[in-house]
Structures are given as C-alpha cells and as structure tokens.
C-alpha cells in the first residue's frame, strides 16, 4: 500500500516537471547559453567584485543512519546536502533564450564551493564521486537570476563520543561539522534550518533518531 502511494507521487512529480519545462527554448537557445557559461572560468568565485564573499545556504537532510559503532564511536549516515548560493556571473535574460527558465551545468564546468566535514573518519570531502560518469552527470541548476542550487548525496562516517553507560538505552548527541578550505571572507555558510531536516529519515532497527 505504502509502495503504491510512493509510486503515484513520483508519477505526479514528473508530470509537473514536464509541464513547467515545456518552454519554447530550442536546442540552439540552450547551446548559446551553455557557450556563454563556458566562457566563465569555473575557478573564479562568482562575484563581480572579487572582494565580496559568497554566502552558501545549506540544507542537510538525514536520509538514514546506517550504523553506529559504540566502541569506536563511529556514526555512518546517508545524508543529502542541498546548497544554495547566488551567482552574479551566470544569469541571463529569459527572452533572449526562448524563455528558458532553468539551466543545468555539470559541476566540472562551473564554480562550486568545496565543503569538508571536520569530524569525518576517513575522507573529509562531502563529494564522494567515485567515477567520471557520476561527476559528469551531477549538475548545478541555475535560474535566470543566477540563483544556484546544488544537491549532493553522501554516505559518510563521523566520529562521535561514545558514552555507553546506559546501554541499551544510551543516547548520543552527534555533531556533523561542516567546514570549507576557503577563507571566511570568500565563502560563508548559513544553515537554512536550525536543525537537520529529518522528515524523510528512515528509522534504523537499533536506533531511533
Ligand atoms: C568591491 O567591494 C569593496 C568592499 O565592499 C569596495 O571597497 C570596493 O570599492 C569594491 N570595488 C569595486 C571595483 O566596486
Ligand atoms: C530582456 O530582453 C528583452 C528583449 O531583448 C528586453 O526588452 C528586456 O528589457 C530585457 N530585460 C532585461 C531585464 O534586461
Ligand atoms: C530565482 O530564484 C530566486 C530564489 O529562489 C528567486 O528569488 C528569483 O525570483 C528566481 N528568479 C526567477 C527569474 O525565477
């Protein structure tokens, strides 16, 4: 029953998707805009005035807790990060490009912020693309005013304190600390919500979140 409900939702979602994208933009329109974007270096912060910082709004959604190892204090989570920022260089006048409302650009061809997790056990980057296809098919979405949205799903292990005194009713508070290698006058993070978004969190057999 639940499965049917989910499937229905997906179908409805894709109908809406098709609808909102039936604009009169042609292949040429999209190619022209893509060409314009390619002339902008992906290595330069998307600010007209390079002394301005980029504010990155972060929404973290916890998909599930895969495991928690009490002995080592290692928490394994599947999390989705949605990053929003404003790009001052990648915007366009919709009427010049067949009313194209959204442009997708592969991450290797555009500027994205690098985010790291301070208390990650093995790797520290949130971006765990493990092959070229993965990287090539991951996009940043821009609207015509230059609002950028980038979503990345990540499975990572974080180190947390292990306090098992009240086992099996133990409670752990775990922090996932995001940081960037850039200086704070270049990039600043801002959480969209005060807490991790957990509406879609799957419960774990051993742990309730
Ligand atoms: C860039 O921004 C800085 C700080 O706001 C300002 O002092 C500087 O004059 C700006 N430069 C230009 C070229 O607008
Ligand atoms: C966008 O382009 C159209 C047609 O070239 C022009 O009339 C309009 O003023 C432009 N809008 C902006 C915000 O530049
Ligand atoms: C682009 O997205 C931003 C933020 O959601 C919004 O304020 C802006 O109106 C959007 N621009 C267009 C042209 O839809």
**From the alpha-carbon coordinates, what is the Rg to the nearest angstrom?**
20 Å
Number of helices: 3
CATH superfamily: Neurotransmitter-gated ion-channel ligand-binding domain
Tell the overall outline. Answer: elongated
User: What's the level 1 CATH class?
Assistant: Mainly Beta
Total domain units: 1
Decide which structural class fits the backbone.
Answer: alpha+beta
Can you write the helix and strand succession as a string? HHEEEEHEEEE
- Beta-strand percentage? 25-35%
- As for the CATH topology, it is Acetylcholine Binding Protein, Chain: A
Q: Mean of residue pLDDT?
A: 77
pLDDT below 50 for ≥5 consecutive residues: which ranges? 1-20
Do you know the CATH architecture?
A: Distorted Sandwich
Q: If strands are numbered along the chain, what order do they take across the biggest sheet?
A: 3-5-6-2-1-8
The count of β-strands is 8
Measured between the Cα atoms of the first and last residue, the distance is 25 Å
**What small molecules does this complex bind?**
2-acetamido-2-deoxy-beta-D-glucopyranose
The biggest sheet amounts to: 6 strands, mixed
Protein name: CHRNE
Domain Neurotransmitter-gated ion-channel ligand-binding: 34-188
GO molecular function: extracellular ligand-gated monoatomic ion channel activity; transmembrane signaling receptor activity
Pfam families: Neur_chan_LBD
Q: Can you offer a commentary on this structure?
A:
It is a single chain. By secondary structure, the protein is α+β, with helices and mostly antiparallel strands. It has a single domain, classed as Acetylcholine Binding Protein, Chain: A (Distorted Sandwich), CATH 2.70.170. It has helices at 2-20, 27-38, 132-136; strands at residues 54-69, 74-86, 102-106, 116-117, 139-143, 147-159, 178-179, 187-191. The structure holds 2-acetamido-2-deoxy-beta-D-glucopyranose (3 copies). One 2-acetamido-2-deoxy-beta-D-glucopyranose binds at residues 143-145, 147. GO terms for molecular function: extracellular ligand-gated monoatomic ion channel activity; transmembrane signaling receptor activity. Pfam families: Neur_chan_LBD.
């Amino acid at each position: 029953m639940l499965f049917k409900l989910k499937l229905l939702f997906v179908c409805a979602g894709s109908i809406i998707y098709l609808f909102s994208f039936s604009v009169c933009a042609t292949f040429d329109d999209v190619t022209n805009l893509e060409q314009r974007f390619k002339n902008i270096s992906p290595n330069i912060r998307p600010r007209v005035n390079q002394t301005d910082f980029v504010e990155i709004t972060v929404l973290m959604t916890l998909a599930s807790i895969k495991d928690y190892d009490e002995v080592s204090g290692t928490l394994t989570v599947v999390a989705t990060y949605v990053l929003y920022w404003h790009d001052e260089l990648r915007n366009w006048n919709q009427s010049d490009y067949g009313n194209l409302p959204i442009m997708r650009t592969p991450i290797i061809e555009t500027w994205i912020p690098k985010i790291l997790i301070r208390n990650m056990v093995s790797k520290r980057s949130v971006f765990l693309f493990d092959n070229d296809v993965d990287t090539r098919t991951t996009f940043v979405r821009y609207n015509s005013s230059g609002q950028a949205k980038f979503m990345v799903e990540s499975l990572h292990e974080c180190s947390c304190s292990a306090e098992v005194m009240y086992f099996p009713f133990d409670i752990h508070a775990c922090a996932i600390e995001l940081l960037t290698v850039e200086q704070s006058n270049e990039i600043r993070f801002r959480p969209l919500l005060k807490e991790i978004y957990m509406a879609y969190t799957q419960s774990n057999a051993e742990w309730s979140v």
